[in-house]
Write a structure and sequence with these properties.
The complex is a heterodimer of chains A (about 120) and B (about 110).
Chain A lengths: L4 E3 L2 E4 L5 E6 L6 E7 L6 E7 L2 E5 L6 E5 L5 E5 L8 E8 L10 E2 L3 E5 L1
Parallel strand pairs in A: 2-11
Antiparallel strand pairs in A: 1-3, 3-8, 4-5, 4-9, 5-6, 7-8, 9-10, 9-11
Chain B lengths: L2 E3 L4 E5 L4 E3 L2 E3 L5 E8 L6 E7 L7 E2 L2 E6 L4 E6 L8 E9 L4 E3 L3 E6 L1
Parallel strand pairs in B: 2-12
Antiparallel strand pairs in B: 1-4, 3-9, 5-6, 5-10, 7-8, 8-9, 10-11, 10-12
Classes of the chains: A mainly beta (about 120), B mainly beta (about 110).
């Protein structure tokens, strides 16, 4: 079965640089979520999109922005990177059918290291 | 807002034995889902099992089963016939209202040969 695809899998950036993370959801899934997992931490919700519109917003810094495109893929744009942004970034997708919480399936994550 | 508490930071079990991981949660929502995710050393997040709050029957998935006590807001995971491949961090999570998942801090499970 098709899974969530994330690219790149690894990314190394310098402080103050910009990074773009991409996510391709499972086919026919209409909702995309972004999570950040720091070392030794649990995943923290950043932002989600349903049918290309922002749905919920969590602890996402103002330096970050995201969008979902017409083909349902999503991009997380991170600017003015800081050392503390080094983390594993997950994208998850689900089908928000019947208007209730459905299972979120996670991609393999993008490991971002800021030097 | 939802909260999830996993009170066991680390646990170990002998291969082929049974282990139970604890999870308690809090939410004011009536309609919610509970999940257990597994994160092996590769750090992939893998769904283990899910439970709809409106269902009284406990979910099972092969060697994995849950004990869902709605009144007590408890959602424990039982792993039977533990295998070396079960070694991982296990996260309990709740999805309610706004659809985002709230995770517990995780329990690191080691299966000893």
């Amino acid at each position: 079965a098709a899974g969530v695809i994330q690219s790149p899998r690894h990314l190394i950036k310098e402080k103050r640089e910009t990074a773009t993370l991409k996510c391709y959801p499972i086919p026919r899934h209409d909702t995309v979520y972004w999570y950040q997992q720091g070392p030794g931490q649990d995943p923290q919700f950043l932002i989600s999109f349903y049918e290309k519109m922002q749905s919920d917003k969590g602890s996402i810094p103002d330096r970050f922005s995201a969008q979902q495109f017409s083909d349902y893929h999503s991009e997380l744009n991170m600017s003015s990177l800081e050392l503390g942004d080094s983390a594993l970034y997950f994208c998850a997708s689900s089908s928000r059918d019947r208007g209730k919480t459905e299972t979120q399936y996670f991609g393999p994550g993008t490991r971002l290291l800021v030097l | 807002a939802q909260t999830v508490t996993q009170s066991q930071p680390e646990m170990s079990v002998q291969e082929a034995e049974t282990v139970t991981l604890s999870c308690t949660y809090d939410t004011s929502e009536n309609n919610y889902y509970l999940f257990w995710y597994k994160q092996p050393p590769s750090r992939q997040m893998i769904l283990v099992i899910r439970q709809e709050a409106y269902k009284q029957q406990n979910a099972t998935e092969n060697r994995f089963s849950v004990n869902f006590q709605k009144a007590a807001k408890s959602f424990s995971l039982k792993i039977s016939d533990s295998q070396l491949g079960d070694t991982a961090m296990y996260f309990c999570a709740i999805g309610a209202g706004s659809y985002q998942l709230t995770f517990g801090k995780g329990t690191k499970l080691s299966v000893i040969p």
